[in-house]
Design a protein that fits this description.
Layout: E1 5-10, H1 19-24, E2 28-34, H2 38-48, E3 52-54, H3 57-61, E4 68-71, H4 78-87, E5 91-94, H5 102-115, E6 119-121, H6 129-139, E7 146-154, H7 174-182, E8 188-196, H8 201-207, E9 213-220, E10 226-232, E11 241-248, E12 251-254, E13 264-267, E14 276-278, H9 309-313, H10 321-334, H11 342-360, E15 366-367
Parallel strand pairs: 1-2, 1-4, 2-3, 4-5, 5-6, 7-10
Antiparallel strand pairs: 7-11, 8-9, 8-15, 9-10, 11-12, 12-13, 13-14
């Protein structure tokens, strides 16, 4: 495969993490960068030797040399920028979540159908080494029949940028919805969610969202499985935890309670004291082209003098960044849908949006739209 995809990165805060990955990927050309603040644009452009620079997003989209955009802008801009890019004939990778409304999720799915362009939500958890480990166990049959899935994402968002304070917990739920849906490629059918506790009044009034914790059950379509996910963002004492657990008939996988400790495998039919066993999760760099394998272990933002909150608190996102970039580029080269594709991304994102609606209604069951058949 000698084809190269011209990639433009939009947003150079967290987005800068991906620049050297694309620069070293054998099928990518790190062609352009876009940032509203020209001083930041030039600083990053000079640092990485990128000549094509835009401070205006529309000008970037008008460039016929751009094949694909990777959007890393603030959450409120995701849907608008994604739709503009698709309609300008560009493929899109976008950091999570896909959008902030179910209607915008639907519009993005429709736009991919209308334009024939690919969309991928860059959900880190489904390419983290822990998820890849569990996926390998499942595919080898070691888990047996999967019986239940559970995930959590707890984080203290105090001090984050202006669009985060008071955010409803489930409006940023893809890090826990993604793995429970993604392991067996399931489609969420309906959701029920409860809010619990309250955040401070000054935070609650920003989005009219009072809950400290939101916990949801997800029922999957054409499956006997359901999953449980819970989220907190403010006023809850908890170390950062982005956990994913799966319970099978033969083996189960449980996330450690404390960051840095090893996960636990439970194996059925053993003497009780032998059922649990701590395991070391292997790295999966061998899934990647040799040129970018080293990025599973380090990147731009795990340097002490260049720390980004999402990378520091997220434990390096499980080595997922080069896997995300590789999946996106590979899908374009092979002319196939990336994982997650547009309808899957819409489904995962809308679970969180509608879970919050359910919590405001005291746990009401809310159906998800059928994004797959749009």
């Amino acid at each position: 495969m000698s084809q190269k995809i011209n990639v433009a990165i939009v947003g150079l805060g967290f987005g800068a993490e991906f620049i050297p990955i694309y620069q070293q990927h054998p099928n990518a050309n790190m062609y352009a960068i876009c940032q509203r603040t020209e001083s930041k644009l030039n600083e990053v452009g000079d640092q990485y030797g990128i000549k094509v620079r835009y401070s205006n997003y529309d000008d970037l989209l008008a460039d016929p040399n751009v094949d694909a955009v990777h959007i890393n802008s603030p959450i409120p801009n995701h849907a608008e920028q994604t739709l503009k890019a698709l309609r300008a004939g560009k493929h899109v990778a976008c950091t999570v979540p896909m959008a902030t409304s179910v209607e915008d999720c639907m519009e993005i799915v429709k736009a991919t159908k209308e334009t024939g362009k690919k969309y991928m939500m860059m959900e880190t958890v489904v390419y983290a080494r822990e998820f890849l480990f569990v996926k390998e166990l499942y595919e080898k049959g070691e888990l047996g029949k999967v019986q239940f899935l559970k995930a959590s994402h707890q984080q203290d968002m105090e001090g984050w940028p202006d669009y985060w304070p008071g955010l409803p917990p489930m409006h940023y739920a893809t890090h826990c919805v993604g793995p429970v849906a993604g392991l067996l490629k399931l489609e969420a059918e309906y959701v029920s969610c409860f809010g619990s506790g309250t955040i401070s009044e000054d935070l609650a009034k920003i989005h009219n969202s009072p809950f400290a914790v939101e916990s949801a059950h997800i029922k999957f379509k054409d499956s006997d499985l359901s999953a449980y996910v819970y989220r907190s963002l403010f006023d809850v004492a908890r170390q950062y935890r982005e956990s994913f657990e799966v319970y099978g008939s033969k083996k189960s996988f449980e996330w450690p309670l404390i960051e840095g400790e090893d996960p636990v495998i439970h194996t059925a039919k053993k003497p009780e004291h032998e059922i649990p066993e701590k395991v070391t999760t292997p790295d999966y760099a061998h899934y990647l082209p040799e040129e970018i394998r080293h990025f599973t272990g380090h990147g731009v933002y795990n340097l002490d003098d260049n720390a980004h909150l999402s990378f520091v608190q997220g434990g390096g996102h499980g080595g997922s960044h080069p896997h995300l970039a590789h999946e996106f580029i590979s899908a374009l080269i092979e002319n196939r849908d990336p994982f997650p594709n547009a309808w899957q991304s819409a489904n995962w994102t809308s679970v969180g949006i509608l879970a919050h609606e359910s919590a405001l209604q005291g746990g009401a069951l809310i159906q998800l739209p059928d994004f797959k058949s749009v």
